[in-house]
Amino acid sequence: NAYYEWCKKNNFISKLLADRKSQQEAAEAGKSQSTLDAAVIPLEKRTPYSQHRMNEAIWTFIVDTNQALSVIERPSFRNMIDVVSSAKEVITLPDHKVTRAGIMRMFFKRMGQLKKLFAVSSML
Questions:
Q1: How far apart are CA 58 and CA 111, in angstroms?
Q2: CA triple 54-60-65, angle to 5 deg
Q3: How far is 79 from 71, CA to CA, in rounded Å?
Q4: What is the DSSP string of the chain?
Q5: Quick check: 43 and 90 in contact, CB under 8 A?
Q6: How confident is the model at residue 73, as a pLDDT?
Q7: Is the pTM of this model over 0.85?
């Protein structure tokens, strides 16, 4: 057919009804919804909270780190537990290098505050 030859020669897509239907069917057959599996980061499985597990974790912490029993009454320990308990996602604990750097930053910040506090004017 001259029409099809002209379409091929001019790189033109046929607009005849039968051709459009077959083009649409071919497009529908090639369609498939892709999944996000490659982009999804699996979360760690969380164990449900129980008071018994919390108590055992505290006792294990005290024994493993040779802490005084009174450590659980310290405001800083209780604050840490409050911060952790309000998390909605899995918590990532810092390693010893990050912890050391954080403690050093806190130390130097506190030293700067103390220097300002104890600064004496040379003009009396």
A1: 32
A2: 130
A3: 12
A4: -HHHHHHHHTT-----HHHHHHHHHHHHHH--PPP-TTTPPPPPPPPPP-HHHHHHHHHHHHHHHT--GGGGGSHHHHHHHHHHHT-SS------HHHHHHHHHHHHHHHHHHHHHHH---S--
A5: yes
A6: 94
A7: no
Backbone torsions φ then ψ of 37, nearest 5 degrees: -55, -40
pLDDT digits (tens, 9 = 90+) for 81-104: 999 888 888 788 889 999 999 999
Question: Residue 15 pLDDT more than 60?
Answer: yes
The two tokens of residue 80 are 């840490």
Q: What is the pLDDT of residues 31-70, one digit of tens each?
A: 766 677 777 777 777 778 889 999 999 999 999 999 999 9
User: How confident is the model over 105-115, as pLDDT tens digits?
Assistant: 999 999 999 99
Measured CA to CA, the distance from residue 74 to residue 86 in angstroms comes to 19
Query: At a CB cut-off of 8 Å and minimum separation 6, what does 43 contact?
Result: 89, 90
